[in-house]
From TrEMBL:
InterPro entries: Peptidase_M50B-like. The lineage of its organism: Bacteria, Bacillati, Actinomycetota, Actinomycetes, Pseudonocardiales. It comes from Saccharopolyspora taberi. This is M50 family metallopeptidase. Pfam families: Peptidase_M50B (PF13398). The chain crosses the membrane at residues 12-32, 87-109, 116-132, 138-155, 162-180, 209-230. Keywords: Membrane, Transmembrane, Transmembrane helix. The keyword Transmembrane applies. Coiled coil: none annotated.
Length: 235
């Protein structure tokens, strides 16, 4: 079986190679299907809340903790000024963080850095674990980290590359669906305290503009990252 994977990944995506498209379609199916999206969305929530946390720290705020919930929602709590650029950028960061992580993963894989990508993910999850403040959140991060560790430690380079391509595609697609879900919720009046609505209250810029910005970032990352993935040289 490993020889088959090595054969796939050795050709992985000369221009227009079907393997990359197949892997991308698998990732799209995981994001599109409710049966797989609901459990896998926890990974997206981890990335989303991690984005809030990193930008909060970079903007000089104090990170009090992160909670991940079984309904795949999350909450990052930080203290500092309730207005101003720091708060704005902290609220802004969550949704784009998923797509940008996917873009970074696509770049690393395209640069023959699949193993680096895996260890970076483990490092980020380990640091994030220090900020988790509830049992379900700890379980989610530990399980995610364990899966990544198993791939990084036990999988052959061929399997590592294939898994990293799949994970990158998943983040690129998975960064867009939550924005679409938020848009639908807002249209039904069910998300009055969303990141977009908080940004609207802070800046006076309509929530729809922030949603449009997140869609733009997500689709731009998908186009650029997808192109990198389908043009990966021999691995």
């Amino acid at each position: 079986m490993d020889e088959i994977v090595r054969s796939w990944t050795s050709e992985l995506l000369d221009s227009g190679n079907a393997v990359a498209m197949v892997v991308g379609l698998i990732a799209l199916g995981l994001v599109w299907s409710r049966g797989t999206w609901l459990p896998l969305r926890n990974v997206v929530t981890i990335a989303h809340e991690g984005g809030h946390a990193v930008v909060a720290l970079l903007s000089g705020r104090t990170l009090n903790g992160i909670r991940l919930h079984s309904d795949t929602s999350g909450l990052t709590v930080s203290t500092g000024r309730s207005t101003g650029p720091g708060m704005v950028f902290t609220l802004l960061a969550g949704y784009p963080a998923v797509s940008l992580l996917g873009l970074g993963g696509a770049w690393l894989v395209s640069a023959d850095g699949a193993q680096i990508m895996l260890w970076v993910c483990i490092g980020l999850l380990a640091v994030m674990l220090l900020a988790i403040r509830n049992v379900y959140g700890v379980l989610s991060v530990v399980v995610t980290g364990a899966v990544v560790f198993v791939v990084s430690w036990f999988a052959t380079p061929a399997w590592q590359a294939l898994c990293c391509v799949l994970f990158s595609w998943f983040l690129l697609f998975g960064g867009i669906r939550p924005v679409a879900e938020l848009s639908r919720k807002r249209s039904r009046g069910r998300a009055a305290n969303s990141d977009a609505d908080q940004l609207a209250r802070l800046t006076g810029v309509p929530a729809g503009v922030w949603l449009a910005l997140w869609f733009l970032v997500g689709f731009a990352a998908l186009v650029v990252g997808g192109r990198w993935l389908v043009l990966i040289p021999q691995i």
